[in-house]
Write a structure and sequence with these properties.
This protein is mainly beta. The protein is built from 1 helix and 8 strands; from the N terminus they run E-E-H-E-E-E-E-E-E. An 8-stranded antiparallel beta sheet has the order 6-5-4-3-2-1-8-7.
């Protein structure tokens, strides 16, 4: 049920070919159709982690969280100041090759492509 999902930066004006050096890997519960499982997330919130990697910057680690306003975001510290909202997260079917838009710390919404989904085994 829990999956490790890897996202790479998709095509942008700064990266016309996208970039495997910029992205995220995160853990989330998905059903067999690639849809987010809210009930499983509630049972495994602490396991739903995120790792942001960005060439030239320090890596960041946090969690997949639901914000006070009901949006989904990657969060790296308590409070919402550092949150990176995920555009229409619950409406996505997370499958290989699909795109997810994330509004990053600088306020820019960037597209990311799903490049890997694999089972995540709890330690």
């Amino acid at each position: 049920m829990l999956k490790k999902i890897v996202l790479h930066l998709a095509r942008t004006p700064d990266y016309p070919d996208g970039s495997s050096q910029h992205g995220y890997d995160f853990v989330a519960p998905l059903n067999d159709d690639g849809e987010f499982d809210l009930k499983a997330w509630k049972a495994h919130k602490d396991d739903c982690t995120v790792h942001r990697f960005w060439q030239g910057e320090d890596d960041e680690r946090g969690h997949l969280e639901r914000t006070q306003g009901g949006r989904w975001a990657f969060s790296y510290a308590p409070g919402e100041e550092d949150d990176e909202p995920i555009f229409k997260f619950l409406q996505h079917q997370i499958t290989d090759g699909e795109y997810i838009s994330i509004t990053e710390h600088d306020g820019v919404t960037r597209p990311f492509r799903v490049v890997s989904i694999r089972p995540y085994v709890l330690a």
